[in-house]
Amino acid sequence: MTTASFEPISFAPFSDALAARTSELLEDTGVLSEAELETLVTRIAGRPDLWQPLIVVDRERRRYELLYDDDQVDIWVLSWMPGQKTGFHDHDRSNVALICALGELDEGSLALGTRTVSVRMTPGVTRTGRGGYIHSVSHVAGEPAISIHAYSPPLTCVGQYRADAQGRLRREPEHGRKELADSTMPVDASRIEGSHG
Hints:
Jelly Rolls; globular; mainly beta
């Protein structure tokens, strides 16, 4: 896995008041494990007062709002509308946990020699991964569908996976606070072993 170094991008939380209330759910434990992140996003999902103010309905692009960040973790609320998806990506060295809070999403993962494996995420369903975990997320139902994502250490680099003209999969590092492109692999990539299906 290639790691890139990026300059920090200043990105303030949506609301200082929401960030302060979110901090009450955190313990000062350093970098959070997958299990600790899963517990955290589950607690936040159970607190609509924290995430509902961050819902944005935008039919043109997926929207994400920063709920909280510090030196150990950053937490985002994502709003998804029909047709919106991430494509395959990893979170570099950051552990991740995400939970569906509203609507339905599909999380896809690649398995060598087979087609994409998908998990339907309905409210309360969580997914986790260590740094380097490769997945995609796409809207299924809800206008919008809402997911809550937490990364530890904070997300500074994302690897996006794209197929080149010969069908070879390539990892392209991008800043972790840059919005992921909605289509990182071509729609007709079914000829590529392990592609999105």
